[in-house]
Amino acid sequence: MNRHQVPLRPLVAEKLESPKPHTEGRFGLLEVSEVNKEYPTPRGALKVLSGISFTLSRGGATAIMGPSGSGKSTLLHILGALDSPSSGHVRLDGVNPFELDERALANFRNQKIGFVFQDHCLMPQCSVLENVLVPTLVSRASNHHPERARKLLDQVGLSERLDHRPAELSGGEKQRVALARALINEPMLLLCDEPTGNLDSKSAETVASILLELHARQKTILIVVTHNADLAAKFPVRYEMVEQCIRQA
Hints:
This protein is of the alpha/beta class. The protein contains 7 helices and 9 strands. The chain has one domain (20-248): Rossmann fold (3-Layer(aba) Sandwich), CATH 3.40.50.300. It has helices spanning 72-79, 102-112, 128-133, 145-155, 171-183, 201-218, 229-232; strands spanning 29-41, 44-57, 61-65, 87-92, 113-116, 189-193, 221-225, 237-242, 245-248. The strands form 2 sheets. Strands 5-6-7-3-8-9 form a 6-stranded mixed sheet. A 3-stranded antiparallel sheet has the order 2-1-4, with helices on one face. Helix 6 (201-218) links the parallel strand 6 (189-193) and strand 7 (221-225). It starts with 28 loop residues before the first strand and ends with a strand.
């Protein structure tokens, strides 16, 4: 580590135990059943999602499209256990995350779900390799994490950029780092919110190809929210959000 790098190890929090699956769901599946979401307003409840139901098995991939304000990102946040539904159920690998306590829920997200956002959200003071390793800081200790991080960075074409800072990368390269970071803990569910939204067409095509290739290798459950029709067309299953509901496109 050179004098400019920030060591990550002192940031390590107490290691978290993996949540025990509940038996009411089926393992290896994402099950979404009659999910509704509404927010209170002075004029009454504002409904954002209505009766969302679908199931995806491990290795499945789907794109969700729809106009701005149709509830796509809200749905993604619920699937990622960042927000809770007003009613209905979500189960991943047999676990309803909204029945977990705060500590177990944080560990569930860390171990079971990977996130890629439109903005890469990289830590500017950390190297490429350190950024990929950030989700492992609260994982159970493993000597394999650095090796896996290097392997992922090689798979996304950044093996020569391990010690670079985000400011030294292009937009497409930053998003590839974010993708490697999302996969470092081998999550079952990979959620991407407009992953190519800030990229030029060439970089978007590269990121999309790498995303689908890594999904195929790791057999994740992949859900991508996008406005990009070309990206959505690469998915075997496509949904459209219309008037707070979801339908197969």
